[in-house]
Amino acid sequence: MKKSPDDMTAMEKEIWKEEVLRSVAETRKKCQETLENSEKTRAKLRETEKASDEFEKKWQDFQDKFSETLSALATNIGSSIGKSVGGVFKKPEYEPKKMSPEDASELLKDKRNIVILTGAGLSAASGIPTFRGNDGLWTKKYKYCETPEELATLKFFKVHPEVKWQWTHDFYDLCKNAEPNAGHKAIVQFQEHCKLNGKQCHLVTQNIDDLHARLIQESKILKPTVTSEGEPGFGFTDSVYEIHGNLSYSRCFQECSKALKPVQVPDKELSLEDQIPKCEECKSIMRPHVLWFDECYTQELHQAETVQNIITADVDALIIVGTALATNMASRLVSNCLLKNILTIDINIDPACDYGAVVEVEGKSEETLPKLFSSFKPKILKCESNGKEVDKNICSKALKKNPKVYPTKLRKIAIAAKAGKTKSGKNKKVTSKA
Ligand SMILES: [Zn+2]
């Protein structure tokens, strides 16, 4: 028969405490697995049947309560035996370090699986107002609605689609005329560096302004967005997960198909009703390809399951740019990393995290991101005979003819660059600048 803690010697008590802690940690690990499995099942369920908003809310409540209860349980047990219980459900201490982008960059050097999460703050320097900011389009008054939140709902669209489309066309004009800023460019450069160096870099954006996708389209190294209408996956790329959609596309409101169509600038002479685009197939109205506040994420339209899998994978660094984490998936993604004490670089005017291993980089993202990523440039190749920069595609063509000329590193770059167009070029011996 087991002794009660009161009858134990000091040594036995220590051993007993360790055993209790181990079993609590194991139980919590199992609970975490259950939660993750439930999450996967839920994602599958949602794909096969369109569950109600209520379901999503209940699920979120359940998940929050489950985490809270376990966290409280662990803390109680820990404090009752005089030890803290480490693990996934206890919020790690919050000791944010303020750092320069250059110093934060050093921390990224050995990281292999990085997630970048961006929000409206990133696009502010491109002239696109943030949703909760006090400027620009969001404060413009539209008929029948009081607040921008109200305008961005399915409920509103069902009653006044012409007003929602009026707003959409205004915002579309704004985005179309905006240019990606230095922050967007630095991110693409870092993505290219990762791809060429066998690292994972997942870019997840809450922005609907198309600015990431436009830059990715110009990259010869990253996987481009499918731009041929009618092709499977048209409008999507896994070089950027646009979890809230993209305003450059629309889809059938009646869902006769989920295929995306490019948004067109309407004839402003027409009445607002006549400016609403119509489905070519079933003649019903089209809707913007954007996730509204009263809607749920899906795999097909928002790549929700894919992003969920990224969250639960072995991420070793997270970079948050210009987001207050006010939306569901973004906050889940971040809290998953914070709870695991994963390095989190927070580039926000108002820091978005309140626990975890957070590094705060102060400053505007269009200024800090180029510094953060400046040492992660894709390699520039130089021709040995004339010293000129060599197009990676020429390198790839030359490699085909004579693979022995190139060191392994260059061969890798050339193979990765194969995706782009091939220009004509002579079989020149090249060497890396770096
Ligand atoms: Zn249709």
Short description:
GO terms for molecular function: histone deacetylase activity, NAD-dependent; metal ion binding; NAD+ binding. The protein is an alpha/beta fold. The protein has helices at 10-48, 53-80, 101-108, 120-123, 148-151, 154-159, 161-177, 182-196, 211-218, 299-302, 304-312, 328-339, 365-372, 392-401, 408-417; strands at residues 97-99, 113-118, 200-205, 241-242, 245-252, 261-262, 286-290, 317-321, 343-347, 358-361, 381-383, 389-390, 430-432.
Salient structural properties:
alpha/beta, 434 residues, 15 helices, three-stranded antiparallel beta sheet, seven-stranded parallel beta sheet, globular, disordered C terminus, binds zinc ion
Look at the helices and sheets and give the structural class: alpha/beta
What percent of residues are in strands?
5-15%
Q: Provide the list of bound ligands, each named once.
A: zinc ion
Give the overall silhouette.
globular
Tell me the radius of gyration. 25 Å
Q: What would the average pLDDT be, to the nearest integer?
A: 80
> What composes the largest sheet?
7 strands, parallel
| Gap from first CA to last CA | 69 Å
The succession of helices and strands, N to C, reads HHEHEHHHHHEHEEEEHHEHEEHEEHHE
Strand order across the largest sheet: 1-10-9-8-2-3-4
Give the fraction of residues assigned to helices: 40-55%
Question: How many strand elements?
Answer: 13
Spans where pLDDT lies below 50 across 5 or more residues? 78-88, 419-434
Number of helices: 15
